[in-house]
Specification:
The chain has 301 residues and is mainly alpha-helical. The protein contains twelve helices and two strands. It has a two-stranded parallel ribbon.
């Protein structure tokens, strides 16, 4: 039977998978008409990238939903049972796995400090007094739409970063407690993270296309030197999106690396087997009073 913590983690993963499916549907609704109507190369290429991200979210959401909802024995450890006193101690390569679950998100957080600093700057600008009041006046809020579009790729990267941290916070206790749900939760997390990393990589590619188009526009328009310098400086700061995506990919590789061993290891199969009550041996009891009062005689007596 699952513990309360295991049920909460299962519910959380199912909610994330369904949210990913909803996001996929929303992106498909937006990208399909745009891809059909746009004729310019760059906007059409960006719409195509949005379709790719939607497809990844759709596949990832469906797979994660199925894995988190399926009740049958899908994985090797779910086909065997073991009592607590029959489970082997965690050791060997599993210690390296636990170290990876700690080191990978820590390295990623350190690696993405410049990226997080830019997000703090965005939050400070968004929380400026009167910004949203002025944006809503006379339908002038439409000018914020390009800003929201520009923030979409780094938003994917931010959510992916948070996903890695939350994944390790869920998986590490399950591994240390030898939970039967650990292999399945690990697989669901890898599926969801793979979809998010793909979205981050493709979002960075779309941002690169848009940045190149804006640089060409700056060079060909009659903007004064000061405005052009400001725009170029903003594009240089936005370049943090391109350098962040590879770090997410390397972190995903650190998680995916353990998947084959996790599902082929005999140690994991026994250590994370389904729980059963330990067998209790009881001393033999006399069947009746006669067997106690009249024990069997030795031969010849």
């Amino acid at each position: 039977m699952s513990t309360v913590a295991e049920r909460i983690i299962g519910w959380f993963l199912r909610a994330i998978a369904k949210a990913m499916l909803c996001g996929a549907v929303a992106m498909l609704v937006a990208a399909i008409p745009a891809f059909a109507m746009l004729s310019a190369d760059v906007p059409r290429a960006i719409a195509g990238i949005l379709l790719q991200v939607a497809g990844a979210f759709l596949l990832g959401g469906v797979a994660a939903t199925y894995l988190s909802h399926a009740r049958g024995a899908l994985l090797p450890n779910e086909r065997v049972t073991a009592a607590a006193n029959q489970r082997p101690a965690m050791g060997g390569w599993l210690m390296a796995l636990s170290l990876t679950l700690v080191a990978a998100p820590v390295w990623l957080l350190l690696r993405m400090q410049p990226f997080l600093a830019e997000w703090r700057r965005v939050i400070e600008l968004a929380s400026a007094p009167g910004l949203w009041d002025n944006a809503n006046a006379n339908m002038s809020g439409v000018v914020l739409m390009p800003i929201f579009a520009a923030l979409t790729p780094p938003f994917f990267e931010l959510v992916t970063l948070i996903g890695f941290v939350v994944t390790s916070l869920m998986l590490l206790p399950l591994l240390l407690l030898q939970s039967p749900r650990f292999p399945r939760v690990y697989l669901v997390c890898v599926v969801l993270l793979t979809a998010m990393v793909f979205a981050s990589m493709r979002g960075a590619a779309a941002a690169a296309l848009a940045s190149d188009a804006l640089r060409q526009l700056i060079d060909t328009t009659s903007a004064n030197a000061q405005e052009a310098a400001s725009l170029r400086q903003a594009l240089e700061r936005y370049g943090i999106v391109f350098t962040t995506a590879p770090a997410l990919l390397w972190t995903l590789f650190a998680y995916v690396l353990w998947v084959p061993a996790l599902f082929s290891s005999a140690r994991v199969r026994t250590m994370c087997a389904e729980r059963v009550a330990p067998a209790i041996s009881t001393p033999a009891q006399a069947s009746d009073v006669a067997s106690i009062t009249s024990p069997p005689r030795f031969p010849g007596i």
